[in-house]
């Protein structure tokens, strides 16, 4: 393989949606880590813990919106060419988003008021108010992202996403300079950031705000019918991560949330490429499922899943070895207890590639309800493990150990459910992936020599 051939292949890869997705997610992960590292050094632990709890609840509400509408929009907009029908789909998305926001706001404000009346969570009424305001001003950002992704405009989609992070990172520096960097300032800055970016996407036409009255009951029913399973799966998946922080914050305290969150953000450096590769591979696997005999599709599935597992293996081992320096690099010298938690996360990172492929495999073979069942069982294992670790041992490390059990259970159950519909297996994936990487290495060595 000549240098010119390598350069040509590299230029072709850079133009692909897979590269745009990987690069955008990579930059987003780096900006997220930079933001957390800065806040860990500039905020006290109580204020940072309050901010992380606020962000956790917002992520849950955002997951409900995207889970209900994103995949359904992609399915119906990807091949749609009629301008009038495009406006109807966008309008239906706006209408459902407003309806969902109204329902969530009532639940948040009502729950916060009841908790305050009972003497629990005195800060939650203020947080719930900010969450409601943020949910409203972030609608243009979120809907523009869904519509851009549905039309395969990945560069614009990533630009919107990264702009929010860059502006918020800048506002942190401003808050530090003004000596106002507390949780209330962070709530305000995050909301204003979404308001500013939302205004830009409305002016550019990416959010299609003018279509809000165009949606009809036909489009709303289709979006709701398709989105119910994906919303449930995404919600439960998000709860797998956020439930740990919510339980730790409620039963131990905000400082413990920070100790747990630092390594959780570091593990995103492994989750990000896994997510990008799986999202890019899913349409191809879906097409192959309809075109190939089932045994051939299963062999291809095993090959793709096993290859990703093998690529993650050295990253996971490296993270276990270098856990101490990685935590110190992100949070400074005040979070040494986070190193042991990171090592646990690196163990469950070994299960992630195969677990994620088992989930998309169930969706591809038209069994989304079983995928929802799998994630629901994982959440149950996680909640029971968290409560055991916190109530009996007051141990944040025990919560991380519960995460290992959670993803192992998801991996085993996912493949067990998928095996009823296709001849796939964990062993087959590992063997097929190892063989493919070995053959690719030999081929590259041969071409390089010749």
TrEMBL record:
<dbReference type="InterPro" id="IPR050833">
    <property type="entry name" value="Poly_Biosynth_Transport"/>
</dbReference>
<keyword id="KW-0472">Membrane</keyword>
<keyword id="KW-1003">Cell membrane</keyword>
<dbReference type="InterPro" id="IPR002797">
    <property type="entry name" value="Polysacc_synth"/>
</dbReference>
<feature type="transmembrane region" description="Helical">
    <location>
        <begin position="185"/>
        <end position="209"/>
    </location>
</feature>
<feature type="transmembrane region" description="Helical">
    <location>
        <begin position="130"/>
        <end position="148"/>
    </location>
</feature>
<feature type="transmembrane region" description="Helical">
    <location>
        <begin position="94"/>
        <end position="118"/>
    </location>
</feature>
<keyword id="KW-1133">Transmembrane helix</keyword>
<feature type="transmembrane region" description="Helical">
    <location>
        <begin position="51"/>
        <end position="74"/>
    </location>
</feature>
<protein>
    <submittedName>
        <fullName>Lipopolysaccharide biosynthesis protein</fullName>
    </submittedName>
</protein>
<feature type="transmembrane region" description="Helical">
    <location>
        <begin position="160"/>
        <end position="179"/>
    </location>
</feature>
<dbReference type="Pfam" id="PF01943">
    <property type="entry name" value="Polysacc_synt"/>
</dbReference>
<dbReference type="GO" id="GO:0005886">
    <property type="term" value="C:plasma membrane"/>
</dbReference>
<feature type="transmembrane region" description="Helical">
    <location>
        <begin position="20"/>
        <end position="39"/>
    </location>
</feature>
<keyword id="KW-0812">Transmembrane</keyword>
<feature type="transmembrane region" description="Helical">
    <location>
        <begin position="399"/>
        <end position="418"/>
    </location>
</feature>
<feature type="transmembrane region" description="Helical">
    <location>
        <begin position="308"/>
        <end position="329"/>
    </location>
</feature>
């Amino acid at each position: 393989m000549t240098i010119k051939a390598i350069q040509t292949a590299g230029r072709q890869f850079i133009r692909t949606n897979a590269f745009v997705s990987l690069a955008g997610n990579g930059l987003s992960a780096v900006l997220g880590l930079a933001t957390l590292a800065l806040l860990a050094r500039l905020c006290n632990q109580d204020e940072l813990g309050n901010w992380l709890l606020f962000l956790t609840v917002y992520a849950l509400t955002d997951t409900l919106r995207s889970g209900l509408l994103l995949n359904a929009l992609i399915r119906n907009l990807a091949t749609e060419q009629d301008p009038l029908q495009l406006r109807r789909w966008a309008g239906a998305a706006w209408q459902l988003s407003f309806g969902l926001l109204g329902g969530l706001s009532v639940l948040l404000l009502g729950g916060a008021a009841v908790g305050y009346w009972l003497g629990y969570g005195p800060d939650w009424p203020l947080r719930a108010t900010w969450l409601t305001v943020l949910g409203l001003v972030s609608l243009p950002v979120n809907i523009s992202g869904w519509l851009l992704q549905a039309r395969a405009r990945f560069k614009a989609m990533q630009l919107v996403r990264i702009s929010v992070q860059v502006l918020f990172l800048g506002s942190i520096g401003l808050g530090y300079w003004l000596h106002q960097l507390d949780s209330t300032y962070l709530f305000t800055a995050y909301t204003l950031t979404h308001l500013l970016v939302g205004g830009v996407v409305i002016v550019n036409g990416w959010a299609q705000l003018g279509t809000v009255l165009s949606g009809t009951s036909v489009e709303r029913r289709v979006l709701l019918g398709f989105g119910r399973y994906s919303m449930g799966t995404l919600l439960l998946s998000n709860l797998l991560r956020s439930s740990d922080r919510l339980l730790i914050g409620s039963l131990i305290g905000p400082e413990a949330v920070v100790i747990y969150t630092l390594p959780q953000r570091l593990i995103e450096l492994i989750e990000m490429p896994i997510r990008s590769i799986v999202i890019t591979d899913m349409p191809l696997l879906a097409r192959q499922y309809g075109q190939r005999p089932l045994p051939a599709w299963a062999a291809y599935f095993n090959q793709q899943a096993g290859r990703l597992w093998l690529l993650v293996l050295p990253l996971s081992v490296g993270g276990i070895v270098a856990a101490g320096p990685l935590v110190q690099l992100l949070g400074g010298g005040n979070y040494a207890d986070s190193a042991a938690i990171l090592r646990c996360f690196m163990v469950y990172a070994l299960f992630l590639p195969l677990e994620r492929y088992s989930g998309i495999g169930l969706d591809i073979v038209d069994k989304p309800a079983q995928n929802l069942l799998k994630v629901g069982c994982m959440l149950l294992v996680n909640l029971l493990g968290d409560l055991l670790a916190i109530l009996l041992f007051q141990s944040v490390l025990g919560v991380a150990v519960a995460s290992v059990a959670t993803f192992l259970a998801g991996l085993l159950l996912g493949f067990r459910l998928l095996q009823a519909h296709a001849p796939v297996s964990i062993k087959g994936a590992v063997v097929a992936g190892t063989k493919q990487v070995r053959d690719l290495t030999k081929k590259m060595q041969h071409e390089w020599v010749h």
